[in-house]
Design brief:
This protein is mostly helical. The protein has one domain (about 35-160). Helix content is about 90%, strand content about 0%. The chain has two helices and no strands. It has helices at about 10-140, 145-160. The radius of gyration is 62 Å and the shape is rod-shaped.
């Protein structure tokens, strides 16, 4: 048995069948297949272009986002700094007002103490004068013996000790 035999009739009909099939494919299938391949190539290219655009847009958005984030951080840092400065300023103002108020209160207290002191001193002078006048009146009215004299002195001392301090 021979594996390869050449039969010219079979070769002829095979070539004819191949050419007819090639003609039919060329007329009916070749253009649609090429059109489909071209359309697919265009779709793939379009998808690649869209992906490239999307990547570029994403990159631009990322950069914009980073710029905005940096700006927001700077703004928040400025706001925090201003807030610190304002709080320190308000704190200093409150402290100065409190110091001023305490100084005024101390001054008022000193003035009140001095007024009370003057009032007490004037009262003490009046009492001393009254006692002196009372003693002088009793001396003028008559001679005072030693017992009356001691009683007068004790009364004066008692009146002086009763005075507010």
């Amino acid at each position: 048995m021979e594996l390869v035999r050449l039969e010219w009739g079979l070769i002829f009909w095979t070539i004819i069948t191949f050419l007819v099939l090639l003609f039919v494919l060329k007329k009916l299938a070749w253009k649609p297949i090429l059109n489909m391949l071209e359309e697919r190539e265009k779709n793939i290219q379009s998808s690649l272009d869209d992906a490239e655009k999307a990547r570029d847009e994403a990159k631009m958005l990322l950069e914009e986002n980073n710029r905005m984030l940096k700006k927001a951080r700077e703004t928040s840092a400025q706001i925090i700094e201003k807030s610190k400065e304002q709080s320190e300023k308000v704190g200093r103002e409150i402290q100065a007002k409190a110091q001023e108020e305490s100084t005024r209160m101390i001054e008022r207290a000193r003035e009140e103490i001095n007024r009370e002191k003057k009032t007490a001193m004037n009262e003490l002078r009046r009492e001393t004068v009254d006692l002196g006048l009372a003693m002088a009146e009793k001396l003028i009215q008559g001679t005072i013996d030693k017992d009356v004299h001691n009683k007068l002195i004790e009364g004066c001392i008692q009146n002086l000790s009763d005075l507010p301090e």
